[in-house]
Structure formats: structure tokens, C-alpha cells
Design brief:
two-stranded parallel sheet, 7 helices, 7 strands, 16% strand, 50% helix, alpha/beta, 5-stranded mixed beta sheet, globular, 160 residues, Transcription Regulator spoIIAA
Length: 160
């Protein structure tokens, strides 16, 4: 059942996601999150997701993707993903969930920022060309500054 859910989630559009039975979804996500270790730190203007696993694989990327959908459904439009504990990523396809997060945040008028890229992940990110659409910064402090500067800029322009 969990495998069918993961497959369905990969092809599910945002509109379909909103109509999905959220109680069933939360139950299935809780099952999946037990296998994937990460922390969620919610703030007023942004959320930080920090992976706590040394490997970023196709086993744990659906869990991250699910969490990104949940956070977006909760109304968070600025999301920071901290990959600093990740030391290994075998395939560029595993990083595709980052594109989902970027798309969700941009459609909500926010920012999706990835931080903590190390020397082992940099070649895979460069190979996948994901850096052309996703924003990468060096540290978590830079990411929060980036979000606050963007919010200030929107206020001055009157976009809020």
C-alpha cells in the first residue's frame, strides 16, 4: 500500500493533492516519515527542513517531497532545506523532489532555498542542472537573510 501511495504522490498534481483525503494522507506520511529522519523548524516567515541522514536516495526523497506538499498546504511559502548532514547522493534523479519544492514555493509567491551543499553533492547538482532553477546558498544564516530581504523588497514594492 505504501508503494502505491509513493507512486501516486509522484504523479499527483497540486490540484489533485488538495482534493486528496488528508486524513489518509497524514497516516501514510507518518508511516513514511518514520523511515526518513529530518527535523522541521517552523518560524513566522519560513520553515527549515534539515535532513538527518547521511544518504539522499530514492528511498527517502518521497518522504521529503511529501513533507514539502504538507508544508505548502499549511500555508508556508518560504522553505529552506538544509542538506549539510548529507554526504552521499547516488543519482541526480533523487534530487528531483527539490524541484517540486521550488515549484510549490514559487507558485505561492515565496522562495525555496537549499543550503549545506558539500563537496560530495556539488558534482551531482552541477550534473543535473538543478542549480538553474533552485536557489542555493552556503549557510542557513544566508538563507534566512535572503528570505527577509525578499520580504522587505516585496513590502517596498507593495506586492504584499
Amino acid at each position: 500500500m505504501l508503494m502505491r501511495f509513493q507512486t501516486a504522490l509522484k504523479v499527483m498534481s497540486y490540484r489533485q493533492f488538495k482534493r486528496f483525503n488528508l486524513k489518509k494522507f497524514y497516516t501514510l506520511v507518518e508511516l513514511r516519515i518514520e523511515a526518513m529522519k529530518f527535523s522541521v523548524d517552523k518560524h513566522e516567515k519560513y520553515v527549515t527542513l534539515k535532513l538527518k541522514e547521511p544518504k539522499f536516495t530514492n528511498d527517502n526523497s518521497p518522504g521529503l517531497k511529501s513533507e514539502l506538499y504538507l508544508l505548502n498546504a499549511e500555508g508556508f511559502k518560504n522553505i529552506i532545506v538544509d542538506l549539510s548532514p548529507v554526504k552521499e547522493c547516488a543519482d541526480a534523479q533523487d534530487l528531483s523532489c527539490l524541484l517540486v519544492g521550488d515549484r510549490l514555493c514559487k507558485s505561492a509567491g515565496g522562495l525555496f532555498i537549499v543550503t549545506g551543499i558539500n563537496d560530495q553533492l556539488a558534482p551531482i547538482i552541477e550534473l543535473s542542472n538543478i542549480f538553474q532553477s533552485v536557489t542555493f546558498v552556503n549557510t542557513l544564516a544566508e538563507a534566512t537573510d535572503f528570505i527577509f530581504m525578499d520580504e522587505l523588497e516585496k513590502e517596498f514594492r507593495g506586492d504584499r
